[in-house]
């Protein structure tokens, strides 16, 4: 099953002469890169749902934390291990 995982945008940069917006998104203790093409209004500090390297929607912080905790408890965050998935609470 493919899931969208909530994370917090830490930084945004333009690539390809400004034609592509990419973000560093933090998921617990791990940071990965994601495209912001589907959420052009996203800004640093926003929480986004990321699916296969693409941010697909902006979510509020409370919902992001609840979803992240649920995925953690369900064992769906194995690819993010061994990150200290004591996660979004510390952010």
Descriptive report:
By secondary structure, this protein is mostly beta strands. About 15% of the residues lie in helices and about 40% in strands. It has one helix at about 60-75, and strands at about 5-15, 20-25, 30-35, 45-50, 55-60. The protein has a 5-stranded antiparallel sheet with strand order 3-2-1-4-5. A hairpin with a 2-residue loop joins strand 2 (about 20-25) and strand 3 (about 30-35). The chain is elongated and about 40 Å long. About 25% of the residues are buried. Mean pLDDT is about 85; it is low at about 80-90.
Q: How would you sum up this structure in a few lines?
A:
With 91 residues, this protein is mainly beta. Helix content is 14%, strand content 40%.
